Amino acid sequence: MPRPSVESATDLSDFFDTDEFALAASYTVTGGSAATVNGVFDEGFVAVDVGGQVQVANVQPQFQCATSDVSAADKGDAITVNSVSYTVAEVQADGTGLTTLILERA
After folding, report:
1. CATH architecture of the region 9-105
2. How confident is the model over 59-92, as pLDDT tens digits?
3. Single pTM value for the model
Protein backbone atom coordinates (compact mmCIF):
# COMPACT_ATOMS: atom_id res chain seq x y z
CA MET A 1 0.00 0.00 0.00
CA PRO A 2 1.44 3.40 -0.95
CA ARG A 3 2.25 5.85 1.81
CA PRO A 4 0.04 8.92 1.99
CA SER A 5 1.55 12.14 0.74
CA VAL A 6 2.95 14.24 3.57
CA GLU A 7 2.59 17.48 1.64
CA SER A 8 -0.49 18.71 -0.16
CA ALA A 9 -0.30 19.72 -3.81
CA THR A 10 -0.32 23.35 -2.65
CA ASP A 11 2.60 22.73 -0.27
CA LEU A 12 4.60 21.14 -3.09
CA SER A 13 3.84 23.95 -5.52
CA ASP A 14 5.00 26.49 -2.90
CA PHE A 15 8.16 24.51 -2.17
CA PHE A 16 9.02 24.13 -5.85
CA ASP A 17 8.18 27.76 -6.71
CA THR A 18 11.11 29.27 -8.62
CA ASP A 19 10.52 32.59 -6.86
CA GLU A 20 11.22 30.85 -3.55
CA PHE A 21 13.45 27.74 -3.29
CA ALA A 22 13.45 26.00 -6.64
CA LEU A 23 15.18 26.16 -9.99
CA ALA A 24 13.68 25.38 -13.37
CA ALA A 25 15.43 22.49 -15.12
CA SER A 26 15.04 20.91 -18.54
CA TYR A 27 14.22 17.20 -18.11
CA THR A 28 14.23 14.71 -20.98
CA VAL A 29 13.04 11.13 -20.64
CA THR A 30 15.15 8.85 -22.85
CA GLY A 31 13.63 8.98 -26.33
CA GLY A 32 11.25 11.78 -25.36
CA SER A 33 10.97 15.53 -25.54
CA ALA A 34 12.33 18.03 -23.04
CA ALA A 35 9.99 19.42 -20.37
CA THR A 36 10.53 22.07 -17.71
CA VAL A 37 10.57 20.68 -14.17
CA ASN A 38 10.93 22.77 -11.02
CA GLY A 39 13.00 21.37 -8.19
CA VAL A 40 15.72 21.92 -5.64
CA PHE A 41 19.28 21.24 -6.79
CA ASP A 42 22.02 20.26 -4.37
CA GLU A 43 25.63 19.40 -5.08
CA GLY A 44 26.81 18.35 -1.65
CA PHE A 45 29.83 16.31 -0.69
CA VAL A 46 29.51 12.65 0.29
CA ALA A 47 32.12 10.36 1.81
CA VAL A 48 33.06 7.38 -0.35
CA ASP A 49 34.53 4.28 1.29
CA VAL A 50 37.25 2.96 -1.01
CA GLY A 51 38.16 0.06 1.24
CA GLY A 52 40.76 1.75 3.38
CA GLN A 53 40.89 3.58 6.65
CA VAL A 54 40.40 6.96 5.00
CA GLN A 55 37.27 7.92 3.12
CA VAL A 56 37.40 10.05 -0.02
CA ALA A 57 35.05 13.01 -0.48
CA ASN A 58 33.08 13.17 -3.69
CA VAL A 59 30.42 15.51 -5.07
CA GLN A 60 26.95 13.97 -5.45
CA PRO A 61 24.64 16.27 -7.41
CA GLN A 62 20.94 15.64 -6.92
CA PHE A 63 17.64 17.23 -7.92
CA GLN A 64 14.53 16.87 -5.76
CA CYS A 65 11.15 17.49 -7.34
CA ALA A 66 7.50 16.43 -7.29
CA THR A 67 7.08 12.77 -8.26
CA SER A 68 4.16 13.74 -10.49
CA ASP A 69 6.56 15.83 -12.61
CA VAL A 70 8.95 12.90 -13.23
CA SER A 71 6.64 9.90 -12.97
CA ALA A 72 8.39 8.17 -15.90
CA ALA A 73 11.92 9.00 -14.67
CA ASP A 74 14.52 6.31 -15.22
CA LYS A 75 18.26 5.80 -15.14
CA GLY A 76 19.87 7.34 -18.21
CA ASP A 77 17.42 10.23 -18.62
CA ALA A 78 18.89 13.70 -19.16
CA ILE A 79 18.46 16.86 -17.10
CA THR A 80 20.03 20.28 -17.48
CA VAL A 81 20.34 22.46 -14.38
CA ASN A 82 21.99 25.90 -14.43
CA SER A 83 23.22 25.21 -18.00
CA VAL A 84 25.04 22.04 -16.85
CA SER A 85 24.03 18.70 -18.40
CA TYR A 86 23.56 15.65 -16.17
CA THR A 87 22.48 12.05 -16.61
CA VAL A 88 20.15 10.43 -14.08
CA ALA A 89 22.11 7.73 -12.24
CA GLU A 90 19.36 6.74 -9.81
CA VAL A 91 15.70 7.58 -9.14
CA GLN A 92 14.63 7.67 -5.50
CA ALA A 93 10.88 8.14 -5.13
CA ASP A 94 10.10 8.33 -1.41
CA GLY A 95 6.42 7.37 -1.62
CA THR A 96 5.22 10.73 -0.24
CA GLY A 97 5.12 12.67 -3.51
CA LEU A 98 8.81 13.61 -3.69
CA THR A 99 11.49 12.13 -5.93
CA THR A 100 15.23 12.68 -5.69
CA LEU A 101 17.19 12.22 -8.90
CA ILE A 102 20.80 11.26 -8.23
CA LEU A 103 22.84 12.80 -11.03
CA GLU A 104 26.17 12.43 -12.82
CA ARG A 105 27.71 15.04 -15.10
CA ALA A 106 27.04 14.13 -18.72
Report:
1. Beta Barrel (2.40)
2. 899 999 999 999 999 999 999 999 999 999 999 9
3. 0.85
